[in-house]
Amino acid sequence: LAMLCLTCLGTVGVTVSALARSSAALLRGGRRSLGVKALVTENPLLLQESLPLFSAIEAVHVKDAVSGALSSMESEFESLESRLQQSGDVSYSAVIEELEKLEAPVEYSWGVVNHLMGVKNSDELRAAHGEVQGEVVKTTTKLSQSEAVFKALEALEKDGSLEPAQHRIVQSSLSSMRLSGVGLQGEEKERFNANRIRLSELSTAFSNNLLDATKAFSLTLTEPAQVDGLPPSALALAASRAAEEGEEGATAESGPWRLGLDMPSYLPAMKFLRDRSVREALYRAFVTRAGEVNAPLIRQILQIKQEQASILGFGSYAEVSIERKMAPSVEAVYDLTEMLLAKAFPAAQKELQQLTEFATANGFDGAALALWDVSFWSERLSEHTFGFEQEELRPYFALDNVLDGLFGLCRRLYGVEIVRSDGEAEVWHADVGFFKVLDEASGEHLASFFLDPYARPENKRGGAWMGVCVGRSKVLDRKPVAYLTCNGSPPVDGKPSLMTFDEVTTLFHETGHGLQHMLTKVAHAPAAGISGVEWDAVELPSQFMENWCYDPATVYDAGMAKHYETGEPLPRDLFGKLCEQRTFQAGMGMIRQLMFGALDMRLHHTYDPRGEQTPFELQHELAERYAVLPPLPDDRFLCSFGHIFAGGYSAGYYSYKWAEVLSADAFAAFEEAGLEDESAIVALGRRYAETVMGLGGSLPAAAVFKLFRGRAPTADALLRHSDLA
């Protein structure tokens, strides 16, 4: 299942069958026979005519459900292979659609398990997941290496009657099977398949270790001087965390205060705490998370991926990755990186110099700024330059108001109405909301999504992401459903969730992913939504949405930015300063992302994981070109780089910048039309919805972009938006 960006138990006193009946209409599909009928009435993971029955799902259900679904799929697949070999029917429906039907039950049940691993992790769930993970990989690998299916697809590719989307699906399936080892034989095939199982195990272990390390660390402070500078919202959160851990009577005013490494706790501490020693302790803990346990996994992962590439006949894993990307070659990625670095690095050097001079003039007496000083003094410089503090914004960005603005933008651009529909689907936590997406004109129900907005460091992994719950499918008669997961600031002290502006843009970002999944016009599941979209293009819709956080109509017309108590709108002069601040330290921000992408690509292209140089030494080597401040000698950032070691971004982290070229250019079309010209914005929004959001993987990403923009993308808008032109 797709999961983008940087994947509940309990009961509510309602029977499983009643829950299934109440939500069956949401998928509008008949029950899919799993071939394990004895389990269906007892196991909620196998009740797939509804949305997941989260209140009934427990870890004990995983093995029986997944193993049973795998057994059924394998049996049905053998029958399909036999039919293909005997009948010679290689029509689209006989191959692609039959594969979709037989794979659906496993995708559904295993997808729910993986989702819960990300949002409600537990020892019991980990054990159950680990027990069947190898079986899942083994069985799905067997399907992807079927000679009978491959030959049928080769024949189908020559069928001139296929729709363009169908033809692209066939081509994509053939490419995927080649990269999955369909042409391998004997010992090479055995080794390749064993490696796939091992990689899945290592990836899961990496993610679990990072979650454990993040939640294991806490720093309890008892002296008011230690939390001097921390804003009221952060003090309240720190006191509530201390109270949860048994510190009776903890208050924001008198403490004690408990800080952690999750973003709602860590970021305010690094930006506002005046006590440099506390910032240093937090920073060192953050950049060494999971260092001891994940360091050996990194070498193993890189070695296995290199071996897999070699078995397939490629020179590196990066070359394998590029086969399914929009970028034509690794060299093209390097070219973009070098062009952006040449623009950004001089700006970053100047920004650091300005920051150092400001800090020195305002009380900093160290020889040079340390890494734990940068966020603190950057925040002070921003306040001095733009005349406002970030905390001033929070009261104007309560979550419900932000959702009003976000949904208003969706209505304006895409012609959809988004309505809260809590109670119509089971959720895995009380904070999770459920929403329906309706066509504004007809009222037709198009899609749905879950929103899990707040951090829960005890059992929810960090970051933000969009995951697929259900994909659009004509064959299965299913509407798309998405998981939108963030780690934002929770409600504290009776106040609603008051968001930082970064949390606002993150919510818009993930919604962009979700909308591409949900607003697809493609009826064929393998090319619907994000399916079949090149990985270095999937960040286009998400990063595009971030631009609208700076659009006056979005911020004001739907009540997105208004004081949560008085209802007064965000002062216009403050909004103007916020827009000015957008390019603050853009050079330093740019080189940070370029460093991550370059490190990822080097690790997967030219680095020898069996050689003497460690991955951390390579990181320091690259930092000499990409960083204005070197990392600490014991920095273990790579041990928390889940995007490439536990996600889908290995040899693909560059995708963020590659897609940002696309997203900036796409938004520039709206700027050229005139952001104040409402009729032009609406018309252009509908075209964007029909092309970028609607066509999914039915055409190459470059062709989809050209249909919207009328030409190939350029980096001009990205450089202009970053003030680096």
Say how many strands there are. 8
Distance N to C terminus: 39 Å
Give me the secondary-structure category.
alpha+beta
Helix content: 55-70%
Give the overall pLDDT as a whole number. 93
Strand content: 5-15%
Spans of at least 5 consecutive residues with low confidence: 6-40
State the shape.
globular
What value does the Rg take, in angstroms?
25 Å
Number of H/I helices? 27
Walk across the major sheet and give the strand order: 1-7-8-6-5-4
Instruction: Outline the biggest β-sheet.
Output: 6 strands, mixed
Describe, in plain words, how this protein is organized in 3D.
About 5% of the residues have low confidence. The chain is an alpha+beta fold. The chain has 27 helices and 8 strands. The strands form 2 sheets. A 6-stranded mixed β-sheet has the order 1-7-8-6-5-4, sandwiched between helices. A two-stranded antiparallel ribbon has the order 2-3. Helix 3 packs antiparallel against helix 4 and helix 14 packs across helix 15. Helices cover 55% and strands 6% of the residues.
Short description, anyone?
This protein has about 725 residues and is an alpha+beta fold. It is about 55% helix and about 5% strand.
